[in-house]
Amino acid sequence: MKKKILLVLLLCMFLVPSVQAKTINHFYAEADENVTFSDEVNGSSALAGQSVETTGNIQGVSFLAANKIESSGQSDYLVAAGNSITVSGTVNNESIIAGNVIKVDKSAVLQRDVIILGSDITVKGNLGRNVSLFGNKVSLIGTTVNGNVKIYAEEITVDDDTIIQGMLSYPKDAKVSIGKNVNNVKKTGAIKKEVSNDFITFVKDKIWSFLSLVVIFAVLTLLAPNLFDRINKDYEVFNFTKGMETFSKGLVFLLMVPILAVFLLVVPFALPLSLISLILYFILIYISKVFAAYLLGYKIWQKSFKKDINLLLVGIIGFTILLILELIPGVNSLVFIVTLVMSMGIISDFIIKREKKVK
C-alpha cells in the first residue's frame, strides 16, 4: 500500500505543470506593502512598497523604491532608492543606487558604470567598468573591478582579495586599509568630516522626505481622491503651452501670497488673517511636491499604460523619478524650483476654478 501511495505522489510531481513566470509586453508598475516580482518584462518597470523583492527579468530600466529592497533578478538598467538595499542579480548597463545600508553581494554582476550613494556601503560583486562610491563607510571585499574606482568616504576598506584593473582614488584624509593587490592608487583632496556628514545627511533626508511625502500622498488619495481626478481631467492634454501657463500661475501665486500677507499685517484687525495665510502658505509649500509628482507620474502612466488609473502607483512613479533627479548634483536645484512652481500652479488652478464654480 505504501509503495502505491509513493508511486501516485511521484506521478503527481511529474504530471502537475510547473508555474512559469509570465511575460509582460509593456511598462509595468506595482505598489503594495510587500512586493514580490518574478516575471519577465519587455520594457521598463517600477516597483514600490515597504519591502520589494525582485527576481524577474526586466528588459529595460528597473525602478525600485522601498524601505527594504532585495534585487536578485536581471535588468538592463537599475535605479534603486531605499533604506536597506541588497543587490545580488545582474545589470547589463548602468546602475544608480541610493540608500542607507547598501550591499552588493558576491553573486552580483554590474556590467557597466555604477554610482552608489549611502551611509554604509559593502561591495563584493563583479563590476564591469567605472565605479563611484559616496558614503561614510565603504568596504570592497573580494571585488573585481574592470575600471576605475572613485571613493568619497571617511572610512575605506579594500581587502587583499579585491582586484582593481584601473585606478583607485580616495580622499587623502580618509581612514584607509588597502589590500596588497591594489597598486594603482591616487589620493585626492581632503574631504572634511563636516562635508562628508552633510552629504550623508543630505541623502538620508531626501529618502526620508520621499517616504514621508508618499505617506501624505496616500492619505490625500483616501481623504480627497477628487483632487487627483481633477488633475487627470485638467491635464489630460499637457503640451508646452499648457506647461508654461501652469508655471506662470505658480510663479505669481508663489510671489504674491507672502506679499499680500505682509500687507495685511499693517491693516487694522487683519493680523489673524495674515498669520493664517502664511501658515497655510508654508503648509502648501511642504506638500506641494505631491501634486507635481502625481502629474509627472500621470503623464508617464498615460503614455505607457492602456488600463485604468491607479492613483497610488501613479504617485509613486512620479516621486521616484523626482527623488532620483534630486540626488544628481547640479540638477537638484533646478528640479526643486520647477517642481515647486509647477505645484503652486496646479494649486492655483484648483483655487481659481473653485471660485468660478462658486460664482
Give descriptors for this structure.
22-stranded parallel β-sheet; single chain
Question: What does this entry look like structurally?
Answer:
The chain has a domain at about 195-359. Mean pLDDT is about 80; it is low at about 10-20. The chain is globular. By secondary structure, the protein is α/β, with parallel strands linked by helices. The chain has a 22-stranded parallel beta sheet that branches. About 45% of the residues lie in helices and about 30% in strands. It has helices spanning about 1-15, 195-225, 225-235, 240-265, 270-305, 310-325, 330-359; strands at about 25, 30-35, 40, 45-55, 55-70, 75-85, 90, 95-100, 100-105, 110, 115, 120-125, 125, 130-135, 135-140, 145, 150, 155-160, 165, 170, 175-180, 185-190. The termini are far apart. The chain has 7 helices and 22 strands.
The percent range for strand residues is 25-35%
Specify the helix fraction band. Answer: 40-55%
Mean of all residue-level pLDDT scores: 79
* Category by helix and strand content: alpha/beta
Total helical segments: 7
Q: What pattern of helices and strands is seen along the backbone? A: HEEEEEEEEEEEEEEEEEEEEEEHHHHHH
Distance between the termini: 85 Å
What is the β-strand count?
A: 22
- Subunit organisation of the chains: single chain
- Describe the global form: globular
Largest sheet: 22 strands, parallel
Task: Indicate the radius of gyration in whole angstroms.
Answer: 25 Å
| Low-confidence region ranges | 8-19
